[in-house]
Every structure is written in C-alpha cells, then in structure tokens.
Design goal:
The complex is a heterodimer.
Chain A (H helix, E strand, L loop, with lengths): L3 E4 L2 E4 L5 E7 L6 E7 L3 E10 L2 E4 L7 E2 L9 E3 L8 E7 L5 E2 L3 E5 L1
Parallel strand pairs in A: 2-11
Antiparallel strand pairs in A: 1-3, 3-8, 4-5, 4-9, 5-6, 7-8, 9-10, 9-11
Chain B lengths: L8 E5 L4 E6 L7 E8 L6 E6 L4 E2 L4 E4 L5 E6 L8 E9 L16 E6 L1
Parallel strand pairs in B: 1-9
Antiparallel strand pairs in B: 2-7, 3-4, 3-8, 5-6, 6-7, 8-9
The chains are: A mainly beta, B mainly beta.
C-alpha cells in the first residue's frame, strides 16, 4: 500500500531531551516536507526537501533540523525541544498532489 | 497562490450528495484547484484536483465554472465517515522561492454528515 508513515505517533518528552520523528514513504517521491499544525494557525511548513541531499527551510524552521540521506526517509530532529514545539506534526511527500502521513502528536513538558 | 473562500460549515444527511463550494476569483491561468480533507487530527487527505475541466474519481467530483472563479466539490453519497474539514487550495505548478511546495490551508469548511 502506498503510504507515508511517521513514528512515533504520540510522544511526551521533557525540555532539552533530543528527539527524532521519523518519516518514510514508499512511493519513490522526490519531494518531502514537514508541517506543524497548531490551533488557529493552520499548517505551517517547517522544512522541505526537493530530493536527496537538497533540503531547505520553510516558514518555521527554528529549533528543527532535517536530513535526507535516502529518498524514502526524511526525519525531523529536535535537538533541544522546548514547550513551544508542542504541536501536531505531519510529514508529506510528493509535490502535486501532496500525500500526508498520519501525524505525530508531540508534547514537550 | 490565489486566495480561496469557503463557507465555515455545512450539514448533509447521510446518503445524500454533499456539495461544497469554493470561490477563487483571483485564480490565474496556470493555477490548479485542489481539494483536501482532514478528519479530526488525522493527516490531510488529498481528494481531487483540476484545472478547468470537471474531474471525477472514486472519492468525489469536482465541478469548475467556465470562468474558473469558483468550484464545487461533490461527494455523491455522503457517509458519516465523510465528516471532516474540507479545504479548497489553489496553486500553480511553478511556485518557487522560499517554502517551495508549501500548501496553504485556509479555514476550510466543516462538513457534518448526520444520520
């Protein structure tokens, strides 16, 4: 089944403890992207990747890192999470149209 | 990308057709109309897209007016599982610069399908 997967789906952590949210797609898409969704603010793009080794910032990249070492994976890294990064995170692949993963609900205490 | 306007909410009876309108009066010639939906806190789900011709797939139909300034998403036989927020998005293929590929979701239409 063609899909975008994310892990973990739910995570509660504490300030400053490094974490990684994984994203994987099995559709051979070049483009991948990360969004966060907050009440009243809609979806905001964090980072995107045009293809392997090419990544760039979206609208809200501060506090996040990404890597794209292989086409299928695009992990989101929070080196030192803070409470304002508590949010619902979505990974997406493909440009036209975009296909979204199921989401990762992150709580930073 | 062109701005879109959708009604904040709509109701539909189960089994009936749900017709969701979208206004995009500033759409330009190379911009497509996309529809997504988001069922409570799940990932947005792509439904359908079109340029100027009407489109149909297994999920829905998309009717675009001849002047392309508005469109309607039709769910032919709505079920309770179609209750979701529906987003109409207009974008072109050549959107570049920062935040490349970013989809801008507006407020959408909350569709409630009731028994």
């Amino acid at each position: 089944e063609a899909q975008v997967t994310q892990n973990p789906r739910y995570l509660i952590t504490v300030t400053g403890k490094k974490l990684t949210v994984t994203c994987s797609q099995n559709m051979n898409h070049e483009y991948m992207s990360w969004y966060r969704q907050d009440p009243g603010l809609g979806l905001r793009q964090i980072y995107y990747s045009m293809n392997v080794e090419v990544t760039d910032k979206g609208d809200v990249p501060e506090g996040y890192k990404v890597s794209r070492k292989e086409k299928r994976n695009f992990p989101l890294i929070l080196e030192s999470p803070s409470p304002n990064q508590t949010s619902l995170y979505f990974c997406a692949s493909s440009l036209y149209p975009q296909y979204f993963g199921p989401g990762t609900r992150l709580t930073v205490l | 990308d062109a701005k879109t306007t959708q009604p904040p909410s709509m109701d539909c009876a189960e089994g009936r057709a749900a017709n969701l309108p979208c206004n995009h009066s500033t759409i330009s010639g190379n911009e497509y109309v996309y529809w997504y939906r988001q069922i409570h806190s799940q990932g947005p789900q792509y439904i359908i897209h079109g340029l100027k011709n009407n489109e149909t797939n297994e999920m829905a139909s998309l009717i675009i007016t001849e002047d392309r300034k508005s469109s309607t998403l039709i769910l032919p036989h709505a079920t309770l599982r179609d209750t979701a927020v529906y987003y109409c998005i207009v974008r072109g293929y050549n959107a570049g610069g920062t935040s490349y590929g970013k989809l801008t979701f507006g407020q959408g239409t909350i569709l409630t399908v009731h028994p």
